[in-house]
Amino acid sequence: MRFILTILLFLSVASQGQIINASAPYRPLGCSGLLLDCVPNGVGAYSLRKIKTSYSGNCIRVRRSSDNTEQDIGFTASGDLDTATLKTFVGANNGFVVTWYTQEGSNNATQTTNALQPRIITAGTVLRVNGKPTILFDESIPTGLVFTATTYTHTAIVARSTTIVLVNYVLTNTSVGLYWSGTAGDVTGIGGFDGTNVRNSTTENTNINVAFFSMRSSSLFITVNGGSESNTGAFATSLSPTRIGGRGNLGISHTGNISEIIMWNSNVSGSSSTVLSNINSYYSIY
User: Fold this and answer.
1) Residues 6 or more apart whose Cβ sits within 8 Å of residue 161
2) CB atoms closer than 10 angstroms to residue 32
3) In 3D, which of 274, 241, 280 has the Cα closest to residue 260?
4) Could you tell me the domains of the chain?
5) Which among 47, 51, 154, 282 is most buried, taking Cβ atoms within 10 Å?
6) What percent of the chain has pLDDT over 70?
7) 238 by DSSP, 3-state: which?
8) CA pair distance 212, 236, nearest whole angstrom
9) Which residues 6+ apart lie within 8 Å of 39 measured at CB?
10) Phi and psi (nearest 5°) for 209?
């Protein structure tokens, strides 16, 4: 009887994914910790909430419009952006993001030109989507935050296009990237361009969406708002972005909000449901 119970226990544990094949995608069982505790080893993590327990730095560096003074803004004890400190610092003025600190690695996203910095507070009011703080980018300027090229194969992004412009690029370099909508060519919704292939997964909309992108098997797979994963077709095996909020050339940039971008350079496709569920529980997107 003891032998049978042991076998049953072994099979039960194995069926829940506790026995891990080192060559298979990382598949965590549920996790009560923060997002990067559940699905670790990212290569870039920009968020307006705390997503890694061991991260002890600030969230963003903000410039206020009244005198161009800058100040770092951190997190509250519960892991939210410290909006109280943010509002006290900015006052009744506008606040612009100078630096978005990464919670994984040291590759911060920065914009040193005042006129190109995206906005987080307007006339003393923190910009929000679904009640959560967000950063507003503007294609007409064009705004954008720049960082050192980072190669990745998987990413999760929380964003919204407020206006359907030429291409609402969210995460890019000067040639290729991922976008949220657009009027150019074959751009018809959330998707990506790898220099050759234009791939889309949804029709265009101006809602807040969370999308999980997986570059594997020479294709781009996209999951939007917890739906079924879509194989959109042939695509590069990885991308190497340098900018949040637009390509930074040709006036092709994002018009709308970005709240979170997390990148991995490993196959975490088996954890996409964990990632999306964690994000949705915070942002209430779907």
Assistant:
1) 168, 180, 181, 204, 205, 206, 254, 255, 256
2) 6
3) 280
4) 30-283 (2.60.120.200)
5) 47
6) 87
7) coil
8) 16
9) 26, 28, 264, 268, 271, 274, 275
10) -135, 155
